[in-house]
Design goal:
Shape: globular
Strand content: 25-35%
Radius of gyration: 19 Å
Structural class: alpha+beta
Number of strands: 17
Order of helices and strands: EEEEEHEEEHEHEEEEEHEEEH
Largest sheet: 9 strands, mixed
Oligomer: single chain
Helix content: 10-25%
């Protein structure tokens, strides 16, 4: 379901310029899909902080994202850079990837290119999220220009309602709406996007994540009444829900205040 009208300026809760640590270099021998590949050393690499469309039957965007990544890196020397967790449970490197362009030229940042071309969405984790400001900006450029997946219903921003999220369960989604109620029960904060907490959409923040917000639990509870965008995997637990374990999963949406601003933002 395409989100219409409720578009405004987006303000990050936290945003930081990327400060990466240099890692391995190598030649790309094989591209596996739109966000992972193998170096000639045998090291499998997963692109940090982005999510490309999966390769699945009936969806052309997965193969298209794979071809885009092949064009960027296959057979080329790349440099891995890290901003958090370096290896996942499968032993894959979780890295930002740069393609050198020669003396005096800026290297190509693969994540940024994929986002700007509309062939990935930003997907941070608690242990990989430092580049969020630049990546959000790249994603917004593609979304506003209607590039790539931003023309395809399954990948666009959805309203935070059970109806709009039909077909989106057990997948990575972007959804937005007004937090009708924020409440803490035990070691969990619930951000409810409706009045029925048994069936409506909920964002769930565990106690282990409270300290990642500057103001702790108070900052999270202060989201009541705010219109926000949340990104994450949608599960079905007393209605659709998203587990939120770091602030960068949330963006504030500032509604335009005048009819002229509203008209200019309907794009």
């Amino acid at each position: 379901m395409k989100l219409i009208g409720l578009l405004g300026a987006f303000v990050a809760i936290t945003a930081a310029a990327p400060r990466f640590e240099r890692g391995e270099t190598g030649k790309v021998s094989k591209v596996l899909d739109g966000d992972s590949f193998i170096l000639d050393s045998g090291l499998e690499v997963r692109l940090a902080e982005v999510e490309a469309p999966r390769v699945r039957p009936g969806d052309s965007w997965g193969p298209r994202a794979t071809r885009e990544l092949e064009g960027l890196i296959l057979g080329k020397k790349v440099e891995l850079h890290y901003d958090g967790l370096r290896r996942d449970r499968r032993g894959r490197a979780i890295a930002h990837v740069f393609v050198p362009q020669g003396l005096g030229k800026e290297p190509v940042w693969v994540q940024s290119d994929l986002l700007k071309n509309g062939l990935a969405r930003v997907h941070t984790y608690a242990d990989n999220r430092r580049a969020i400001g630049d990546l959000w900006q790249a994603e917004r450029e593609a979304r506003r220009a209607g590039k790539g997946i931003w023309t395809a219903g399954p990948y666009q921003v959805r309203y935070a309602t059970p109806e709009a999220l039909q077909g989106g369960l057990n997948s990575f989604q972007l959804m937005e709406g007004k937090v009708e109620k924020a409440s803490q029960r035990g070691k969990v904060i619930f951000l409810n996007f409706g009045t029925d907490d048994k069936t409506d959409v909920t964002a769930i923040v565990p106690e282990t994540a409270f300290a990642r917000w500057r103001g702790g639990a108070d900052d999270i509870l202060a989201l009541q009444g705010r219109t926000i965008r949340v990104r994450g995997y949608v599960r079905n637990s007393n209605g659709p829900s998203v587990w939120v374990d770091h602030p960068e999963q949330i963006e504030f949406i500032m509604a335009p205040s005048t009819p002229r601003q509203q008209a200019s933002l309907k794009r």
